[in-house]
Every structure is written in structure tokens, then in C-alpha cells.
Amino acid sequence: MSREGRGLRPDDFPVRRTVTTRWSDNDSYGHLNNAVYYEIYDSVINAWLGEATGIATPDLPALGVVAASGCEYFGEVSFPEPVTVGLAVTRIGRSSVTYRLGVFPCGAGDLGDIAALGTWTHVYVDPDTRRPVPIPDVVLEAIRPVVVS
Question: Is the distance from CB of 133 to CB of 62 less than 8 angstroms?
């Protein structure tokens, strides 16, 4: 992922959201704590999915639970700098969808080089049985336009 990830630009992501960092996001080294990236990814995906489907994610016919996640870091970001997070879908399976997320420092209004590249896989499950089910049609309609190769 490193070699390809370093060259990604904001335009490589069909969806982009600006996220404000918080004082509590910094760790003792003065940059965003690793766990904060995962919180940002989860928030960006679920907020966008709610907007794109018109349904709050807990109210979808099936629940998207995290089955896998990862993050590779290329640079530092720290409070109070906002970041732009790019979102794309890289894989659609029968019951799962994999997202790619890029974190770009906003600096003085210009997006810098990619600081982190995340992957996030949701598996859709029945709310009662928690067994995998096909991705709901409303979700498929939302994610298909943001698929990248």
C-alpha cells in the first residue's frame, strides 16, 4: 500500500470532507494519536453514508459492522490543523464493502501531501441474528458511484 498510497491526491477520492481536529486529539508527541484516525474514518464513513442514503446508519435494514481496518502513516498532523478526508470504495462484495480513506492536512487552505491512508471494511449483518446478509440496495445505490479501481 505504501508506494501507491504516497502518490494519492485529494482528486483520487470522489468524496471529501473537512474535519476539525481537537486539542484532545494530540498525543504526548504533539501529533494526532493513532486511535484518532480510526475515529475520524468511522465518523466520515457513517456521516457520508447517512447523507448518501438519507437514512441514519443505525436505521438501515442491515448493520455495517467493522470487520477489518488499517492505517498507514506518511506524515504528521496535529491540532489545531483541520484535515480533509477523502473517501472512496475499492471493493464491493456480496455482504461487504471496503473503503479507502486519505487524510490530507489543510494547512493554510491548501491541501498538502497525504498524511495517512486508511482501509475500512464493513460487513453487513442482520440486526437480530448478527449473521452476514447481502448489502442493502439503498447502500449499494450510494456506494456504486464512488467506486475507484
Answer: yes
- Burial class of residue 133, CB neighbours in 10 A (0-12, 13-18, 19+): middle
Instruction: Please write the tens of the pLDDT for every residue from 85-131.
Output: 999 999 999 999 999 999 999 865 567 789 999 999 999 999 999 99
Closest to 48 in 3D by CA, of 8, 22, 85: 85
Query: pTM to 2 decimals?
Result: 0.92
| CATH at 51 | 3.10.129.10
How many domains does the chain fold into?
1
Q: Tell me the C-alpha distance between 121 and 16, whole Å.
A: 18
